[in-house]
Write a structure and sequence with these properties.
Elements (H helix, E strand, L loop, with lengths): L22 E6 L3 E8 L3 E6 L4 E8 L2 E4 L6 E3 L3 E5 L5 E5 L8 E8 L1 H14 L17 E3 L2 H16 L5 H32 L4 H11 L7 H8 L3 H12 L3 H19 L4 H7 L5 H12 L3 H5 L3
Antiparallel strand pairs: 1-2, 2-9, 3-8, 4-7, 4-9, 5-6, 5-8, 7-10
Helix pairs in contact: 1-3, 2-3, 3-4, 4-5, 5-6, 7-8
Length: 305
C-alpha cells in the first residue's frame, strides 16, 4: 500500500517553543480540538491523555507508541492511531533532535459528534456487510492512511489552522462526519486483510475479496465479482464502496499494484515481466498506474536515483 502523507503543518519558530518535548499548539472548535505537537530532542516515556476519543496522525519523524499495555510499535508518517477516551499513550522519541524533529497532530472529537454521526448513518443507510453497524472498532487502532483518509485529514488541518470565516464550526462539522466515515472504511480494509479467508464463507464482501486475491493474475470484471457476491452489479458496487471506500475495480487495481511492488522488491524481474505477473495486460497502463499510486515509475522504484 502506498504511503499517504499528510501535508506539512508550519513549524513553530525557536523563540515560540515553550518546550522541546511535545510542544503543543491548540486550535479549539465547537465539536473538536486540533492539537499539533512538536518534539525537538530525544525523550522516553512521555505520557499523553485526552478526555475524548482522539485521532492522532504522524506528520514528520518517528515515535514509538505504547498503548493498551501492549509492546511498543514504530509510529511513522503515513500512519494514524485511534485512541479511546482517557487511554494513556506512552511515547518514546528515539530519533528526535533539532535538525530532525517529530511532528504529529491529535484531533480530539466530542462524544456527541461521534454518537450523532454513527446514529444517523445507522438509521439512514443499509446495514454494513462486515460489521453490521457503522462505528469504530478499537481492535484496529493502528492504521495505514488511505488516500481518502489522508485527503480529509489534510482538509481538516486547513480548516483548523487557516479557516477564519463565521462558518468555520459548521464547515468543521461536515468535515468531521466525513472523517469518521473514512475511518470506519479504513478500519474495514485493515480488518479484511486479516480476516477475509475466515470470513469468506459467510460474508459476500469477504468472499469477493478472497476471490480477487486468489485470481489477481486472471482477467476479472465487475460482472464476475457481482455474480460471486450473488448481487446485481449496481447493488454490489454500492455495497462494496460503502464498506471499503473503494469501487470494486479500484480495489482490484490496488491489489495488482501491491503485488507488482512486491515482485519489484524481489529484484529478480524486469518491469515488463512484473506487468504480466501482476495481472496487467499493457505495460504502458501498468507504468502509468504504478506512478500514480507510488509517485515513481517501476524502473525508478528498482533503481532509485
Amino acid at each position: 500500500m502506498p504511503v499517504q502523507f499528510i501535508s506539512g503543518v508550519p513549524w513553530r519558530s525557536d523563540r515560540d517553543l515553550r518546550t522541546l518535548v511535545e510542544n503543543r499548539t491548540t486550535y479549539t472548535l465547537e465539536e473538536c480540538e486540533l492539537n499539533i505537537f512538536e518534539t525537538h530532542q530525544q525523550a522516553e516515556a512521555i505520557n499523553l491523555q485526552f478526555g475524548d476519543l482522539v485521532l492522532t496522525t504522524m506528520l514528520k519523524g518517528k515515535k514509538v507508541m505504547h498503548l493498551f499495555d501492549k509492546p511498543g510499535f514504530d509510529y511513522l508518517p503515513g500512519e494514524s492511531v485511534i485512541v479511546p477516551p482517557n487511554e494513556v499513550m506512552k511515547i518514546d522519541f528515539p530519533e528526535a533532535q533539532q535538525d530532525n524533529p517529530t511532528q504529529c497532530i491529535a484531533l480530539s472529537i466530542s462524544p456527541e459528534m461521534i454518537k450523532n454521526t454513527f446514529t444517523l448513518l445507522n438509521e439512514r443507510l443499509p446495514k454494513k456487510e462486515l460489521t453490521q453497524e457503522w462505528g469504530l472498532d478499537f481492535s484496529y487502532f493502528h492504521l495505514i492512511n488511505t488516500k481518502d483518509l489522508s485527503e480529509i485529514i489534510n482538509r481538516f488541518i486547513r480548516i483548523g489552522v487557516k479557516e477564519r470565516s463565521k462558518e468555520k464550526d459548521l464547515i468543521a462539522s461536515f468535515a468531521l462526519k466525513e472523517l469518521l466515515i473514512r475511518l470506519t472504511q479504513t478500519q474495514a480494509r485493515e480488518m479484511l486483510e486479516l480476516t477475509y479467508q475466515s470470513m469468506a464463507s459467510s460474508n459476500p464482501v469477504a468472499h469477493v475479496v478472497a476471490f480477487i486475491k486468489e485470481n489477481i493474475r486472471e482477467q476479472v470484471n465487475l460482472d464476475m465479482l457481482a455474480e460471486k457476491a450473488c448481487m446485481s452489479k449496481a447493488h454490489f458496487s454500492r455495497t462494496f464502496k460503502a464498506e471499503l471506500g473503494l469501487a470494486p475495480m479500484e480495489f482490484v487495481l490496488k491489489e495488482r499494484l501491491k503485488l507488482a511492488r512486491q515482485f519489484l522488491q524481489f529484484g529478480e524481474y524486469q518491469v515488463q515481466e512484473v506487468c504480466y505477473l501482476a495481472g496487467f495486460n499493457s505495460p504502458t497502463y501498468f507504468i502509468r498506474a504504478f506512478k500514480q499510486e507510488y509517485g515513481t515509475t517501476p524502473k525508478n522504484f528498482i533503481q532509485p536515483g
